[in-house]
Amino acid sequence: LGDKGTDYITVPYMGFLYAVPMTWLSTSLFQAIVQQFYKLSLSVPPRGMGQICDWLIEGTPGLALHLSSPAESITRSGAGYTVHSSGQAYEVDAMVLAPEPGVSADLLQDLVSGAVTAKLRGCRYSEYAHVQVCYEKNPWPNSAVSLALPANQNAGWGAAVLQSHRHPHAVPEGGEAVGVYFYTRPLAHMTDEDITLAAVNAVTEAYGPAPEPRFVQVFHYKRGLSIAGPGHYATMNSLHTELPDGIFLAGYYFAHAGVEAAIFSGELAANRLARESVWKVPGVVPGLKIRRG
Ligand SMILES: Cc1cc2nc3c(=O)[nH]c(=O)nc-3n(C[C@H](O)[C@H](O)[C@H](O)COP(=O)(O)OP(=O)(O)OC[C@H]3O[C@@H](n4cnc5c(N)ncnc54)[C@H](O)[C@@H]3O)c2cc1C
User: Fold this and answer.
1) Which of 125, 129, 139, 169 is the most buried (most CB within 10 A)?
2) Together in a domain, 96 and 211
3) Signal peptide position in this chain (predicted)?
């Protein structure tokens, strides 16, 4: 893309989305993202991110939902499996496992080869920090800008988003919250106090002067986002053929960071399960599709 394209497209967008240097990322990820840049938008359902779970539940008739009951182990049981959770044993013909890859590795370790668990445990995660800088009275009620991305590689932060623009119901009437996202590399040398100060400075740099915020909330994760390094997708794709019959994996680490990618990956796994299990069910027509809710 040349220097200008790198500074104005690659650095701000990829920094905003992944927070890590390009050399840490798979080339095919960049190629896929660069072709989609023109579609990029930040949208949140009217009742917040949790509403996506509500939609999935509403779109799944006959669902038996067990919350706060982690799967503790999975054992073989005839042609199927038993899932052990919170003192209960659930007999299943097939399953989609969608926790973090390391958890899937632990749950599958007696059922799959060491090569499979090594691939799952080898998924890299980046350190990530996100800060909400919150004002009781909106200092910029007429801001024409919703999202600021620093078009240079010197800033420690990668994006500052006005929440009243992104999701009006997320802030009280007349208030404002600015979400500031940090690049991974500078975090290695920053305390949470440094991150707080840098976030408040980023907000005024991006949107102009403001009084002291009412409060600042730091979310700092040592394992923040799964990062698809070079070779990641080939390794992940190879997993699908190495799993025992009836076990399917899902999670955004198969695709890229984001809730849409997580849902898409779950849908793919559910369709694989339906396709590969369907011949076992008498009278069911092969080619069954899970309908989008
Ligand atoms: C700070 C931050 C900001 C982000 N902002 C955005 C954003 O603005 N927009 C966006 O689209 N994405 C955002 N993301 C990325 C998004 O959160 C992830 O891509 C998405 O949540 C991944 O979904 P997932 O279902 O693959 O995994 P997860 O959300 O990690 O879900 C895995 C689930 O498995 C459960 N689990 C673990 N162990 C077990 C077990 N033994 N049994 C049963 N369940 C288990 C966990 O409790 C968890 O609920 C952000 C991420 C971070 C960290």
Assistant:
1) 129
2) no
3) none
Q: Distance, CA 262 to ligand 1 centroid (Å)?
A: 8
What are the DSSP E strand ranges found in 28-143? 71-77, 80-85, 88-92, 95-97, 124-135
What is the residue-level pLDDT of the chain in tens, covering all 293 positions?
788 888 888 888 888 888 898 889 999 998 888 888 788 777 889 888 899 999 999 998 999 999 999 999 999 999 999 999 999 999 999 999 999 999 999 999 999 999 999 999 999 999 999 999 999 999 999 999 999 998 776 889 999 999 999 888 889 999 999 999 999 999 999 999 999 999 999 999 999 999 999 999 999 999 999 999 999 999 999 999 999 999 999 999 999 888 989 999 999 999 999 998 765 555 554 444 444 44
112 and 173 belong to one structural domain: no
CATH number of the domain bearing residue 194: 3.90.660.20
Ligand 1 atom closest to residue 72's alpha carbon, by position in its atom list: 41
Whether ipTM > 0.90 holds is: yes
> Both 140 and 220 in a single domain?
yes
**Domain extent at residue 168:** 2-48+126-227
With a 6 Å cutoff on the Cβ, whether 7 touches ligand 1 is: no
Write 194-200 long-range contacts (CB < 8 A, 24+).
195/129, 195/131, 195/220, 196/131, 198/156, 198/157, 199/131, 199/133, 199/157, 200/133
User: Which residue owns the Cα nearest ligand 1 atom 48?
Assistant: 99
Residues 174 and 138: their CA atoms lie apart, in Å, by 6
CATH number for the domain including 79?
3.50.50.60
Positive or negative, the Cα torsion across 140, 200, 18, 103?
negative
Kindly state if the Cβ of 48 falls inside 6 Å of ligand 1: no
